[in-house]
Amino acid sequence: MNRHRFDFWILAHRSFVAVCLACSLACWCDLARSQVQQQGGVQQGGVQQGGVQQGGVQQGGQQGGQQGVGNNGNQAGAGGVVIDARGVLRVNAVLDAGLSLPQRKAAVAALPAELQKRSKLRKVALSRLEAEVAKAAAGGRGIPEEMLQLAGLTRVQYVFIYPGEGSEPGEVVIAGPAEGWIVDATGRVIGAETGSPTLLLEDLAAAIRAFPPGQPNDRAIECSIDPKQAGLVAMQAFLKKVGRVNPQANTDQIISGMREALGTQTVRIDGVSPATHFAQVMVEADYRMKLIGIGLERPPVKMSSWIDLASAGSVAANALQRWYFVPNYHCIRISEDDLAIELVGRGVKLCGADEVVLRDGRRLGADRPDHASKTFTETFTKKYTAIAAQNPVYAQLRNLIDLAVAAAYLQEHDAYGRSQWGAESLRNEDVYSIQRYQPPVEVETAIAAVWRGNRLLTPIGGGVTMQPRIALDATNVLMDDEGLVSSARGKKLAVPQDRWWWD
Asked: What's the pTM?
């Protein structure tokens, strides 16, 4: 009698240091194909495209981002997430997230004339911006759109500190490329020409609240998606019921039984309010990155997912596998006087736990990743810029990291004290409310299934963490040897009168 074993291993995450994404609980079944029927959305070598809608992933969501944003701002097959009144997150697929050419032109034409044009370097004076925000809030009128979109900035390239002189306050300025903007069908605000998401005032406020004036801290901004203990117990009971040897169930029954037993997974957010846009982006990026890894959402660029590369024989039973999005720590070039920084490089990389070094020098994980995992993370990192250009949520995630690093820099170098600006209004929820979203509490478990020889891999379904002060460590900071960052700042602040932004 042939005996076939039903083992399982865990592909887990634990977020730490920067932005860590993806823990997936995964099982593999060592089953003979002759004894387990392949039905529904399962096929040898990969997940059937447009097949089973697992974990709330719709057909469009599985193909989301295949034809991402080009220079015309269209996103075919794009998707976002929807969080219902119970706090359950689901992928929301949109067949075409873009706008027609007449719609884009009309949207841009509605902006102030100076904001319609593209700028290589636009500057925003934060204390002046805050004063205008507070004035609008006190007057009972809505905050103008150009303030909410930070005058169309799409990246933070520079942060400049201008110390006050005597009783004359100074200023803090962020600067970067900018352009006119539109709102796509998923609700994202994106550049009308490049399709890059704009920076948002509410995300800047969330970052400043995480790293406020005062003593520098090692605060972490975290998001994790974890299976419930009761769900794990129920899954073990289900596996015992169907039998680990010659299981009395076909593939579809095993998948649906595991999904039902596990139920929803719990979302945990620390460091920022879960009711903020900042938190929403972290959770969406986490969840959708996981879907790419396990084969339920196609990568937006040509690359192999982890499930494409994995083989059951290469991963030991009960092995622990983790992936982390972390900042590219060599991402800051700082002036000699510490009054200016430039954010350089792609900003984000994906790595395994064995590559993540903690502040005390320890590595987050001692086990080396399998070949499939290493190849997947290295490819994702190499193609991150292209991925972000096609799928806006990853560009938004990069922007969040940039804002968090910028906020940590302001705190570390006492920009608030030196400029005599305390960001009181941006830090005050009563003055400027950013906690206006339904907090994500749970996500539906996503399950894929793929045959590898006579074994059935069924990865089930994530985390994000930022510790941006690591990027400010002396070993990670790049020096401004040629003086280019200082030159970009200039010796004195030159703000046009009665303006909070300028080119």
From this structure: 0.81
